[in-house]
Specification:
Blueprint (H helix, E strand, L loop, with lengths): L30 E9 L5 E9 L7 E12 L6 H7 L1 E2 L3 E5 L3 H14 L10 E5 L14 H10 L17 E2 L2 E2 L1 E11 L2 E12 L13 H4 L22 E8 L5 H9 L1 H8 L8 E14 L15 H22 L3 E2 L5 E2 L4 H11 L4
Parallel strand pairs: 5-6, 11-12
Antiparallel strand pairs: 1-2, 2-5, 3-4, 3-12, 7-8, 9-10, 10-11, 13-14
Helix pairs in contact: 2-3, 5-7, 6-7
């Protein structure tokens, strides 16, 4: 596991209650697996794969899903077919930019290996670029790593920080990576869970906020060094990328999943993301509240009333914000490609910054 989670430091975000784990795995049936690769020879590599199973029978029992591109300088495979039919029919992979194809193909080969009888596979795999800390052009992620992440997936607490696809990532010029959180939307006698997992690799230091506190300005480059240009030839910018996967057990139709995915934008904005020109900010939401059998000729589905969506939107925004900050508090200082070092967000400085603006319990 990573260093600590935000709430371990006595800092709480939002007003809605979290699930028991404060993780995407609070949505029943979801399991998450990572494969992490850290090595210095024959090339310096800091990378990996993260896999999310909506449930173990996803190849045969599909979920409604929808996606949103806040800024599209990135990749999420399978979205054209997802937009067409609104059904998610595979686990979701997240990895580094140059290895999307390998991971996408690995999900196909895994399905074939397991004897899945789909006529074809168009899995969803997303990416952010880890080329500042990892020698990306060695194309280090393998089919075996993707299969490992699928096989190792489990429920319960989710590893965060320098793990899986988030191993070499940057967030607000601190070490970034994988983060997760959840919220409970309880209303009119119903209780639904919204869980979020992010791969955070975006943002300028001065824009970072935690519960509205300008933490990035308080912990500036004089306090903790941060890289100014993530890639060769790039100026100091807010460019980067973030992938946000939202899950809920609320019974939603595909268009409602699209609407839910868009609300990740609010949580990202609260944390300091602005959707810069060079950023790939791509969000996907799926619902386990309706499952559609692969060969179904018809299906009886449920739909949450439109007015009931507002609390889910708030849950999605709050969980996205906290998942991003959890990625920061969990991630650890890392030295990688060309001797570059990316420093962790210091917990003591974070607590000092929060206390300056408001009490910390």
């Amino acid at each position: 596991m990573g260093r600590a989670r935000l709430r371990d430091l006595g800092i709480k975000l939002g007003r809605l209650s979290t699930g028991p784990l404060n993780a995407i795995t609070d949505v029943a049936g979801i399991v998450v697996g990572h494969s992490t690769l850290i090595r210095d020879k024959p090339a310096i590599v800091r990378t990996g794969v993260t896999m999310i199973w909506p449930h173990r029978d996803i190849f045969t029992d599909y979920c409604f899903a929808g996606f949103h591109s806040f800024n599209g300088n990135g990749e999420m495979t399978g979205t054209i077919w997802l937009a067409e039919q609104g059904l998610l029919s595979s686990p979701i992979g997240i990895t580094c930019t140059h290895c999307v194809g390998v991971v996408r193909d690995a999900i196909c080969s895994y399905a074939a290996k397991k004897g899945v009888k789909q006529a074809f596979h168009l899995p969803v795999v997303a990416e952010t670029h880890d080329g500042w800390l990892s020698d990306a052009e060695t194309f280090p992620v393998t089919e075996a790593m993707a299969h490992e992440a699928l096989e190792k997936a489990k429920g319960g607490p989710v590893e965060e920080g320098n793990v899986g696809g988030g191993t070499g990532m940057i967030c607000h010029e601190f070490k970034g990576g994988i983060g997760t959180a959840s919220r409970i939307a309880a209303e009119a006698g119903d209780s639904f869970t919204v869980g979020v997992l992010v791969q955070a690799n975006y943002g300028a230091r001065d824009l970072l906020r935690v519960d509205g506190v300008p933490v990035g300005r308080e912990i500036n480059h004089d306090v903790v060094p941060g890289h100014r240009a993530p890639f060769q030839g790039a100026p100091a910018t807010t460019d980067g990328s973030i992938i946000v996967i939202l899950a809920t057990d609320a019974p939603l139709l595909p268009i409602q999943c699209q609407r839910l995915a868009r609300r990740a934008t609010t949580g990202l904005g609260w944390a300091g993301g602005i959707g810069a020109n060079g950023s790939g900010d791509i969000f996907l939401a799926f619902s386990t509240g309706n499952c559609i059998a692969r060969d179904a000729q018809h299906a009886d589905v449920r739909m949450l009333g439109a007015e009931r969506m507002t609390l889910l939107f708030r849950a999605a925004a709050e969980a996205t914000e906290e998942a991003i900050i959890n990625a920061l508090t969990a991630a650890q200082t890392m030295t990688g490609f060309q001797g570059r070092t990316l420093y962790e967000l210091p917990h003591d400085k974070l607590k000092q910054a929060m206390a300056k603006y408001r009490p910390v319990s």
